[in-house]
Amino acid sequence: MNSLFFYGSLRHVPLLETVLGRRLDAVNSRLAALAGYAVYAVAEGPFPMLVQQQGANAQGLVVTDLSKQDIARLDFYEGGFDYDLIDVSLEDGTLAQVYVCAADRWQALDVWDFSDWEQRWAEMSCFAAVEVMGYFLTHTRDQVAAMFPQIRARAWSKFLGAYRHAGQGVFEGKVEIEKITRAYVGYFAFDEVSLRHERFDGSMSELLERSYMVAGDAALVLPYDPVRDRVLLVEQVRMGPIGRGDPEIWHLEPIAGRIDPGETAEQAAQREAREEASLDLSKLELVSKGYASPGESTAYFHIFVGLADLPDAAAVIGGLAEEQENIRSRLISFDKFMKMAERQSLANTPLALLAYWLAYHRSRLRS
Q1: Any idea which positions bind Mg(2+) (predicted)?
Q2: What is the mean pLDDT of residues 67-73?
Q3: Digit-coded pLDDT (tens) for 320-361
Q4: 325 belongs to an annotated ligand binding site
Q5: With contact defined as beta carbons under 8 Å apart, do 4 and 77 qualify?
Q6: pLDDT category, 317, cuts 50, 70, 90?
Q7: Has 263 been annotated as catalytic?
Q8: DSSP string, 246-307
Q9: Is 176 annotated as a binding residue?
């Protein structure tokens, strides 16, 4: 009989069921406690670690009658975080195993609050677990661990997307998805999907074979100084022009970056402004929210104008060294910016959108 004690995120039954790939039999699970241990949150992610502590009592869930397949799936999931099984005796005398990490693997913070984790992170963690377990038997746990920042970002995008309704007043026909296959995964991922959808006349389409790029939500912001009447653009090498064969590989853009798990779009915009251009934005004006290219990508943009003080010294070279970023800031007067937009010199669609939004709202911002 295999009995495991879960003290962390896998106490959340929907997440545990996602990892197991099956429903959990309530008869084989119950609340339990492990004496001599405490559960602490870690600095590196929304999950906890178990720490030996005299007089402490870790609360959790014990599950019995787990199969070899169940254990293999759990080893794969937990192994990506460098957690492995040890034998323990629970407070009631039950012999069980529990996943623990090396004492110096993660940085322990405060005592972990399971209820707070469920409220803030459970749904995103379930989305991430679906992707992680999709790699079971095709990837090693170390390969999945290397991809986990991207996996978590894609999961956070799904979380944000589940609560966004644009209210376009469009057709709400049925969509029947027969199969989704992960065709490629790296920094981005690509899915192939077989589906049928309801047509405007009420009939169903033939089986369609389609594909899309899976990307996270991103925040884009154009810093604007209403006193000096100028904007700040950033310049860096971009992969799209390289792939298209464009002779202009360095491009002018608004400040932009992925929304990290737990962040709002506004928080991401402020953080990216600091990282890419060493700027603090005094106020954010929402310009638009929408898909970058809904026919081929899940990428979703949250676009802002950020009011800022932009003296000559604001033109710097920035970016995060650990992400190999090399980003140059460029200060451009509003008049020159609009002339660039008019002659189609802004080879970046969100930047063109920002130019015309700024032209419309400029008088209000300057007042």
Answers
A1: 256, 272, 276, 325
A2: 95
A3: 777 778 889 999 999 999 999 999 999 999 999 999 999 999
A4: yes
A5: no
A6: confident
A7: no
A8: -S--EEEE-EEEEPPTT--HHHHHHHHHHHHH----SEEEEEEEEES-TTTB--EEEEEEEE
A9: no
51: which strand partners?
38
Is 131 annotated in a binding site? The answer is: no
Residues in CB range of 116: below 8 A, 6 or more apart: none
Write down the pTM of the prediction.
0.89
Kindly report the number of other CB atoms within 10 A of residue 241's CB atom.
Answer: 15
Residue ranges of domains in the chain, CATH in brackets:
4-119 (3.10.490.10), 175-214 (no CATH), 217-366 (3.90.79.10)
- Please count the other Cβ atoms lying within 10 Å of the Cβ belonging to residue 298: 21
What the block records as the tokens of 71 is 């254990």
Q: Which of 192, 275, 323, 342 is catalytic?
A: 323
Enter the tokens of residue 191: 């899915």
- Residue type at position 266: E
| Residue pair 51/2 in contact by the 8 Å Cβ criterion | no
Whole-number CA gyration radius for the chain? 25
